[in-house]
Amino acid sequence: MSAPLLQADAPEIAYREGELHVEAVVVSRIAAAVGTPVYIYSAGAIERQYRRFAAAFADRPARLCYSVKANSNLSIIATLGRLGAGADVVSEGEFRRALAAGIPGDRIVFSGVGKTETELAFALEHDVYQVNVESRGELELLSAVARRLKRVAPVAIRVNPDVDARTHHKIATGKKENKFGIDLAHAPDIFAEAATLPGIALKGVAVHIGSQLTAMGPFEIAFRRVVELFRGLVARGLPLQRLDFGGGIGIRYRDETPPSLDDYAVLIRHLTEQLLDGLEVELAFEPGRFIVGNAGVLATRVLYVKEGVTRRFVVVDAAMNDLLRPALYDAWHEIVPTKPHGRAEPPVKQSIVGPVCETGDAFALDRALPPLAPGELLAILSAGAYGAVMSSSYNTRPPAAEVLVRGGDFAVVRERPSYEALLGLDRMAPWLAGR
User: Fold this and answer.
1) Domain 13-42+293-423 adopts which CATH fold?
2) pTM of the predicted model as reported, rounded to 2 decimal places
3) Of the residues 357, 428, 429, 432, which is catalytic?
4) Is 65 assigned a catalytic role?
5) CA–CA dist 115, 134 (Å, integer)
6) What is the pLDDT of residues 313-360, one digit of tens each?
């Protein structure tokens, strides 16, 4: 008999027959085969979330470009690419990942505030669908690169609508003090300049106000300002055809109530129909966390239980180098045993911590959980976005492996690197070699 839903929008991850499953695969089976810590993703959950988003805008010309920074594993990008997704990238490396996963350049949006000349050239050479320009300097550099390559750069200009997204301050991007986009006051002049520059094909307006938004209000304010700007620019004769609304819809990690996809779609439909008077406009969206966030877990094993003076510490084999979000954002992730404890064991406060030599290496402090024991397998939930992609080898710890599940099958889609591979990244200085 199935237990209650563990992760919002991910019924594929649930207790069945007394053990945690990802689709039809028991998590403990993967842990035994691959070792821990290990990220485990559900292909079915990822595909379903993408189809939900696509269906919400099926009646409009709309392009969905998966935000690669959320989870850049090639198998995940390829899974989405085969459903028709494009990619939203913020570096040449992510661009190369999208290409390697089978998404062509003409389905790739290149965002980001600090693109280099080399990166812009790479994008143009691979027929990028759209470059989201974020400053006058970038616009001028892109024009020069396009002329040198004898190409035309398709451009949307990202504007900063000065809206408080009411999200964590480190992931807010739409306020005037943030580094992203061009403020609304200067935007008309930048658009007018872009229309005159050689090598630039001005296509649209872009906006993205942050990640993990859990209220509709900021979207409504930002989108209204952007659509009104678009209408005014078209009235001035600028050849705009595209409105890029970015991403940012939040997911439930704990007790959040993110906007419903239906409400989000209704808002955009209302604003565009009300303010654009039937203009033919192609919409673009860059969902990331919404697609993959609740489609993954991080499995980790308990190493020790340590009774401190004021806290009970449960030391696990995953660490902040594997999942940085709790240390970086004070983020909450549900943590559950992969085998439920009996009701006879009342929860006790425990702090789940990792082996890294940092006090901040903690996944949960004073969390009420069933009494845990060494050797026990745990799952850190909602770990599909900004988990493995932000990992490192801090303390010379090999980052977690990654596994993708489809039905009753699973595959390792990123191996845990060996110590030899980690050490092989370094080079001994010539004057030290041989000593």
Assistant:
1) Lyase, Ornithine Decarboxylase; Chain A, domain 1 (2.40.37)
2) 0.93
3) 357
4) no
5) 9
6) 999 999 999 999 999 999 999 999 999 887 677 899 999 999 999 999
